[in-house]
């Protein structure tokens, strides 16, 4: 019941039905004035990563459109919990927005014994983009396909790197284990880059990682790409099939790149941000940056965004409980 209430707390409040209702004029006035000062985009991961680049791309457009500075501030740590906690504690006025990925809200609450925020304290403003992961192995393993991977992982334990415990790659590995009965051992690293390097160096057999992290090594023949976990093929590696195409539908896995705000943020202020962000996602230069990161624009807002995240949260809750995953 507590998780259901947390999921429902993401659903947007019903708008005022009449401008004659108490407080309605003040809300409309706030919308007219917003933004009247700089807006802070908090990215809860290190600079240079996909969510950071997305935040800066959107900030650039909004700064020109809404005529106020939009400043990106990085607050990494604890798998995104530190930055999210800072935003949850900020005033609910639209001047502090979190840019990150869904796992901070769909995985971490089930992984960490204590959290600096509760899921119900924040809600999704928009699902900006999605991306799948790339399943890649070191060529020295002799694994040439997903079928080979499954057969080998049923015969012996394989080590797969991830960007850390509870990261999308770790969750994807656990999904593979649960769906197939294969034995994959998660080896956490501090980020996608060292996790990808571990595959190339032969420290691990493979990894399920963000495509840009593995792409240079795939192009150089130092990593064998087996499949992508997204619903569609990657535009960066269009020749690589999806897991669903290969008959592994249960392994389909996508990362949601989300903008989150404190739950009490006024609806009119949210609408201003939503419209401006939708415009940013439609810009050719922003779409080009997303494509280079293997990200697809999304744009879901309100109840649709909240319901998707609530469904993922329940899926990952079951997976984490079954696998007995704990934070490092």
UniProtKB/TrEMBL annotation:
InterPro entries: BUG, Bug_dom1. Gene3D superfamilies: Bordetella uptake gene, domain 1 (3.40.190.150), Periplasmic binding protein-like II (3.40.190.10). Belongs to the UPF0065 (bug) family. Pfam families: TctC (PF03401). The keyword Oxidoreductase does not apply. Keywords: Signal. SUPFAM superfamilies: Periplasmic binding protein-like II. CDD domains: PBP2_Bug_TTT. This is TctC. Residues 1-30 form the signal peptide.
């Amino acid at each position: 019941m507590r998780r259901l209430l947390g999921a429902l707390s993401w659903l947007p409040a019903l708008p005022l039905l009449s401008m004659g209702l108490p407080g309605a004029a003040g809300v409309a006035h706030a919308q007219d004035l917003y933004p009247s000062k700089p807006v802070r985009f908090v990215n809860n991961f290190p600079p240079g990563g996909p969510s950071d680049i997305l935040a800066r791309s959107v900030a650039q457009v909004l700064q020109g459109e809404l005529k106020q500075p939009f400043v990106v501030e990085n607050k990494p740590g604890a798998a995104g919990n530190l930055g999210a906690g800072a935003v949850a504690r900020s005033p609910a006025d639209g001047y502090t927005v979190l840019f990150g990925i869904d796992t901070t809200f769909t995985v971490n609450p089930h992984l960490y014994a204590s959290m600096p925020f509760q899921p119900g304290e924040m809600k999704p403003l928009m699902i900006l983009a999605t991306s799948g992961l790339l399943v890649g192995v070191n060529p020295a393993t002799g694994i040439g396909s997903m079928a080979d991977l499954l057969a080998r992982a049923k015969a012996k334990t394989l080590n797969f790197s991830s960007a850390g415990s509870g990261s999308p790659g770790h969750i994807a590995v656990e999904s593979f284990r649960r769906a197939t009965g294969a034995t994959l051992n998660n080896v956490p690293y501090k980020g996608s880059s060292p996790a990808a390097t571990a595959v190339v160096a032969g420290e691990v057999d493979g990894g399920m990682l963000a495509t840009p992290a593995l792409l240079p090594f795939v192009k150089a023949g130092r990593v064998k790409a087996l499949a992508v976990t997204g619903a569609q093929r990657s535009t960066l590696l269009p020749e690589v099939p999806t897991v669903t195409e290969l008959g592994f539908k249960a392994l389909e896995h996508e990362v949601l790149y989300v903008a989150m705000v404190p739950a009490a943020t006024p609806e009119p202020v949210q609408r201003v941000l939503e419209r401006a962000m939708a415009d940013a996602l439609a810009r050719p230069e922003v779409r080009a940056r997303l494509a280079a990161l293997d990200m697809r624009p999304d744009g879901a807002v309100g109840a649709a965004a909240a319901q998707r995240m609530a469904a993922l949260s329940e899926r990952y809750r079951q997976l984490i409980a079954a696998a007995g995953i704990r934070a490092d």
